[in-house]
Amino acid sequence: MHSLLRLILPVLALTAVSAAAAAAPLVLPFDFSRSALALSVTVRGTPLHVLLDTGVNPSVIDLRQADALGISVDRGDGGEATGFGDGRGAAIFPSHIDRLRIAGRDFAPVEALATDMTGISAGYGRRLDAILGYSFLSDKTVLVDYPRRLLAFLDDGAEAAPLTSGCRTRWSTPLTLVDSFPVIPDFRFGDATAPVSLDTGSNGGIALFRSALALPGLQSALSEQGSVTHAGARGAAKAKTYALAAPVGFGPFTLPAGQAVMLHKMEGSADTRVANVGNTLLEALHLTVLFDYRAGRMTFYGDCPGRS
To answer: What distance in Å separates the CA atoms of residue 169 and residue 304, rounded to the nearest whole number?
Structure first.
């Protein structure tokens, strides 16, 4: 199991204006070849390869790309990225992403940080130009259909109905945030439950934090398998991998015992999140996920015809 690019950046004040007027749903394919939500967009007329990431705040643009596009970067107000990794955080500078177009539709300017994304690109496996995070998503309603590799930008949650018709299983929960990550409450690890964060910037499945080891029965259910190197905002880091001899899941959705998990150095908390779950888990469950930031709601659809 590989864990992508965990890049958790300091929060900047969000000044992006809402996207203009309601329009018909915008439905487009995403590239899932590296188990991440990758999109082809244009910024100032230039094609860019970007990720859609529920765990980054604000958004991110590669520093050299920002310079090449003529986007302003405030080098007088730099800082250091925080997040996963064992090295020093990359330098970050306030910036923005403007004149953004996705599948022919214009989007409002987005608050961003400019940084050298070379290491993140290496961890991903190809060049990345930007990451669209919470500063982009915060005023939007987005549907991610993992089985069909489709992404939809909607005006409101009701517009998801035609795109999820026939799905026999549905489960909804308030869209609450911890450090800008959406949180799934009462995620099951065998008979124990605890909150976990949902991270579309992770190409992994389940990354446990240290606090998860205190959950009843969890530590004894872990069988060490090896280790993996993952990339983050602070460079590369190694983490041990395990097989978990207990079923996992949430709501009506369950995966059987034997799932691969990774153990991070991050402590976490049973009050906030004891683990981070990524795209591999959502894909394995064959889910379609509605992130309704506008209404403060997440809805998960399963057992959809032709999507297993």
So the answer is: 8
Task: Supply the pTM of this predicted model.
Answer: 0.88
**pLDDT-flagged residues of the chain (< 70):** 1-22, 77-78, 80-89, 229-237, 307-308
Token pair 């004040």 is at which residue? Answer: 13
Question: Residue 305 — φ and ψ, nearest 5°?
Answer: -55, 135
What is the end-to-end Cα distance of the chain in Å, rounded? 22
Written as six digits, the tokens of 257 are 């015992």
As to burial, measured by CB atoms within 10 angstroms (0-12 exposed, 13-18 middle, 19+ buried), residue 51 is buried
Q: Which two tokens stand for residue 279?
A: 């795209």
Q: Are residues 171 and 283 in the same domain?
A: yes
149 backbone dihedrals φ, ψ, rounded to 5°: 60, 45
- According to DSSP, the residues that pair with 142 across neighbouring strands are 153, 291
Residues 39 and 155 in one domain: yes
The answer to whether residue 199 is domain-embedded is: yes
